[in-house]
Design goal:
By secondary structure, this protein is α/β, with parallel strands linked by helices. Helices cover 35% and strands 12% of the residues. The chain has a domain of 208 residues: Rossmann fold. The protein is built from eight helices and seven strands.
């Protein structure tokens, strides 16, 4: 383990405490994090569940997106990762996917821009010839203790990234999806559990959940399955780049509201995306699967 890991669980070799650290801005850089997120389950191997599939993953350079990309590659998929400007993280992810024996396309740009989203889908199609899975995962988070301080510019920006991008990318990819394809959106426990300092983020994730249910119904007759994953506290670059240290330093302490009193690592979230992307979930549509250590239990 990293020398900065002050404490780990006995059953899992993962960190549960995180020292104060500062990032230059969102969405954050994984290579700067102390400790680094755990992206792969040690000793894991694939079984061909996504053999020769092609997956587009926004935010695939780091955090949950990176872990999903690694797991999908192990299962036989080629990957296109869309990211903003975290070039070092993207290069690291691309190299690891190639080591796993699959191809990886990296596309940098702003998913809040419709034209870019269409170009990204077109680039993926011209490279791989098909798309089978779309993971709308990238997001921004605004931490603002005084709700009245949120500006119209901030609200527009966070909805562009977290919600509008789901519309843009889904609209661009639908004509190219075949029966059996899957769209998986990342929402959050914040959509159901009140976080006073994350009102705008929670609102966007609630919108993603509603969009998921509506799309699932409208696309079912095409054989396209739409579902969502709602992670709880997970150690990703979005945390140190968005939240004050006092919010995340003791994610493993006794005041953690989840029965499993530690933050998740990305590799613990990724298998749910694999389930929803594979044929094993062929009868599952419009669902939001919560992976949060039991954190949400109502108000």
């Amino acid at each position: 383990m990293n020398s900065h890991d002050s404490r780990v669980t006995k059953c899992e070799e993962v960190p549960v405490e995180f020292p104060p650290q500062y990032q230059p801005g969102q969405p954050g850089l994984e290579y700067l994090m102390i400790p680094r997120p755990v992206s792969e389950r040690p000793g894991s191997s694939g079984s061909g569940k996504l053999h020769n599939k092609v997956a587009v993953i926004t935010g695939g350079d780091s955090g949950i997106g990176r872990s999903v990309a690694y797991l999908f590659a192990r299962e036989g998929a080629d990957i296109a990762i869309i990211y903003l400007n975290e070039h070092a993280d993207a290069s690291e992810t691309q190299e690891r996917i190639r080591q796993l024996g699959r191809s990886c396309l990296t596309i940098a740009g702003d998913i809040g821009d419709e034209a870019f989203c269409r170009r990204a889908i077109g680039h993926t199609l011209s490279t791989f010839g098909r798309i089978d899975i779309l993971i709308n995962n990238a997001g921004e988070l605004i931490y603002e203790e005084d709700f009245t301080n949120l500006s119209p510019v901030q609200l527009l920006r966070i909805f562009q990234t977290n919600v509008f991008s789901c519309f843009y990318l889904t609209q661009a990819v639908i004509p190219h999806l075949r029966p059996g394809s899957a769209i998986i959106n990342t929402t959050s426990v914040a959509a159901d559990r009140g976080y006073p300092a994350m009102a705008s983020y929670s609102a966007t994730k609630g919108a993603v959940g509603a969009l998921t249910r509506s799309l699932a119904v409208s696309l079912a007759d095409r054989g396209i399955r739409v579902n969502a994953v709602a992670p709880g506290r997970t150690w990703t670059p979005l945390i140190p780049s968005s939240l004050p240290p006092e919010f995340y330093m003791f994610y493993g302490s006794l005041d953690n509201p989840a029965p499993i009193k530690r933050t998740a690592q990305p590799y613990e979230i990724a298998p749910i995306y694999l389930y929803l992307a594979s044929e094993e979930s062929g009868f599952v549509i419009g669902q939001t699967l919560h992976v949060n250590g039991g954190e949400y239990s109502g108000l």
